[in-house]
Amino acid sequence: MGRRSHSPIGIFDSGLGGLTVVREISHLLPYEKLIYVGDTARVPYGTKSPETIRRYASQIAFFLLKKKVKAIVVACNSASAVALTTLRQFPIPVLGVIEPGVRAAKENTKKNKVGVIGTHATVSSHAYKIALNKNHPRIQVWEQACPLFVPLVEEGRLQGKIPDLVALDYLRFFRKVDIDSLVLGCTHYPLLKKTIQKAVGPKIKLIDSAHETARALNNLLRMKNLLNPSRARVSPTFFTTDRPKNFSQLSLRFLGRSVYPARFLSLDNL
Fold first, then answer.
1. Are 178 and 232 in the same domain?
2. What pTM value is reported for the model?
3. Same domain, 220 and 250
4. What is the layout of strands, in order, in the sheet containing 140-145?
5. Rounded distance, CA 198 to CA 192, Å?
């Protein structure tokens, strides 16, 4: 096992959405040390150019490497879509959120009809479609950007008339094309599961990429003999690039508990 198995896991996102990944990892791997970076000063990544997203992701990955992490989880679909190849040049395992979600969708679909929802950056990259069709060209994929979902989540509007109307407007066509699986291609979206399920109907299975990513990380660490042998639970360490107090307050929606205190990470140090 050696010293590396005791090292922390680095996780980052453009903001708060990646906390859904932290929640799932904490449930599945309760003895792992986690370091989370929420780049709230530059959120959202979904509207940025691929070049800019790659630069931001590389800066945070370098920061996490300085923290001696044993693996990095890119808990951001936009960064996973365009920056993963760049980040995999680092000397430690790097896991995105797209591949685990795709794997689950392939296993679930019986009709070979899959929907994907995400930010403009994720949808425009066609990363899910490309991955779904790899070795499975018969799978039909419909993609839909849902840019209003992130602000709804961060405003705490998870259920009710407004989110219902927004979800129905974005998602009603998925019923018409008769998909049986819908990938939640943004780490904010699991918090809208009930509203999304209501919009698409009970017959469509929602694929939660946060949950699938935690499972994939468990398998990766086990395969590389990097699971922490300690049985001592350690609270995650949280960094944010803007307004730590606000980050701590909003974290309650994603983790079910407040993150206090979150540490401030200046962009000048990236």
1. no
2. 0.90
3. yes
4. 140-145, 113-118, 181-185, 205-208
5. 10
